[in-house]
Amino acid sequence: GEQVEQRPPHLSVREGDSAVIICTYTDPNSYYFFWYKQEPGAGLQLLMKVFSSTEINEGQGFTVLLNKKDKQLSLNLTAAHPGDSAVYFCAVSGNYAQGLTFGLGTRVSVFP
Amino acid sequence: EAAVTQSPRNKVTVTGGNVTLSCRQTNSHNYMYWYRQDTGHGLRLIHYSYGAGNLQIGDVPDGYKATRTTQEDFFLLLELASPSQTSLYFCASSDGGGDEQYFGPGTRLTVL
Predict the structure, then answer these.
(1) Is the pLDDT of residue B86 over 70?
(2) For residue A95, what pLDDT is reported?
(3) How far is A13 from chain B (nearest CA, A)?
């Protein structure tokens, strides 16, 4: 089945700097891609959903890039601020409503 | 905004105990999911459902039963709890294939 590798597991970022998290998946038939953010004691909050036909999406303070050729999905925090401190998960699914396959998560800490 | 609630938020039981975790969604979503989150494993799918009375097995179903009584309610049952089931459990709902999943706040279960 699908496997998702996420790196790095930990990221320490100075406020105002950028940071990149990369996920590599195995199933070439994967169709939907997601980034979630988990703050301490909370559930997962959707940051962005990416379709197979979309390569780059910009959100509020971040950019998501999908590279289907290399089977990679990345999240770029463009100017980190303390509110970005959280655990970030990528998730992948096929073209049907089964569960998501998650990466192991990246713990991001933003320091002044 | 999508709303998924879980109860209890925290639960402690003993080995061999009987536990029921509850999830309710008020999004009118057809699909509901149970995941467990463990350090080193990320989130893993236990069971999911397409609608009332439907149940599908996920990736780590052993030791768990689930029941979807209504569109809104999805229950996870541990009939003979073991310490290996100590985990953080998340429920989620979605509208269909490829749609984002909305997560509840989680239930922390400890099996002594």
Answers:
(1) yes
(2) 63
(3) 22
pLDDT of residue B100: 86
How big is the A-B interface in CB pairs under 8 Å? 63
Count the residues in chain A: 112
Contact A97 B90 (CB under 8 A): no
Quote the DSSP letter at residue B101. P
Q: Which residue of B has its CA nearest to A105?
A: B42
Please give the structure tokens belonging to residue A92: 């992948």
Tens-digit pLDDT profile for residues A14-58 = 999 999 999 999 988 888 899 999 998 888 999 988 876 556 667
Contacts of B57 (CB under 8 A, 6+ apart): B47
Percent residues over pLDDT 90 in chain B: 88
Q: Give the pLDDT score at A96.
A: 66
Residue B76 burial by Cβ neighbours in a 10 Å radius (0-12, 13-18, 19+): buried
Query: Which residue, among A10, A31, A98, would best test binding to B if mutated, counting the most B CBs under 10 Å from its CB?
Result: A98
- Residue that is written with structure tokens 């069971």 in the block: B47
